[in-house]
Amino acid sequence: MTALEILDTKDFMNKLLLTPTFDHFCLIEASIATFQTVEIDGRINRDYYSSEELEELPPYSYWEKIRPFCLQLVKGKRTPLNFRITLSLSPNNIANVLLSSGLEFTPEQVKGLLLNLKYDGKKVTCITGTSLNIFTMDKRLEQEWDSLAEKFLKKNQIASTQLK
């Protein structure tokens, strides 16, 4: 787990809400407080889809599908009071991370590689996390994800500094 403070809130919000920067992540959950608080559960309602459609869907909605709705919630003259957004790397990208890292985890053992985004009215923090379906003392996947998340931010020109 790495805690990062995003240095340019306005730029980050633009990349989060107006560009496809985070679109390949899945939304686990979100809470956005403006004139009211809206809670979003990112789980896909499986009963809504046909069995053929379900074969292609991850358990959670992609950020690209929810992003326009979240943009509408925060759009206006006032900034949100706060928000919490939890994103996870998509199942396909988790499998790619495991393959490229050479770690001995299977995709079924990894529930999520997470970015926990929190805005408190002034600043944005990003806390990385891993969620596993197994118990292990092995921290190599967590360390790999921390490193990849920082590289992702850097690649997308999102300036951050590590919190102590």
Secondary structure blueprint with pairings:
Layout: E1 3-6, H1 9-18, E2 25-33, E3 37-41, H2 51-54, H3 63-74, E4 82-89, H4 91-101, E5 110-119, E6 124-132, H5 140-155, E7 160-162
Antiparallel strand pairs: 1-6, 1-7, 2-3, 2-4, 4-5, 5-6
Short précis:
This protein has 164 residues and is an alpha+beta fold. The protein contains 5 helices and 7 strands; from the N terminus they run βαββααβαββαβ.
Describe the structure.
The chain is an alpha+beta fold and about 160 residues long. It has five helices and seven strands. It has helices spanning about 10-20, 50-55, 65-75, 90-100, 140-155; strands at about 5, 25-35, 35-40, 80-90, 110-120, 125-130, 160. Strands 3-2-4-5-6-1-7 form a seven-stranded antiparallel beta sheet. A hairpin with a 3-residue loop joins strand 2 (about 25-35) and strand 3. The chain is globular. About 25% of the residues are buried.
Tally of DSSP helical segments = 5
State which percent range the strand residues make up.
25-35%
Q: How many DSSP-defined strands? A: 7
Instruction: Enumerate the spans where pLDDT stays under 50 for 5 or more consecutive residues.
Output: none
Question: What is the CA-atom radius of gyration, in angstroms?
Answer: 16 Å
Largest sheet: 7 strands, antiparallel
**What strand line-up does the widest sheet have?**
3-2-4-5-6-1-7
Shape: globular
Helix content: 25-40%
Please give the oligomerization state of what you see: single chain
CA-to-CA gap between the ends? Answer: 12 Å
**Average predicted local confidence, pLDDT:** 94
Structural class: alpha+beta
H/E element order: EHEEHHEHEEHE
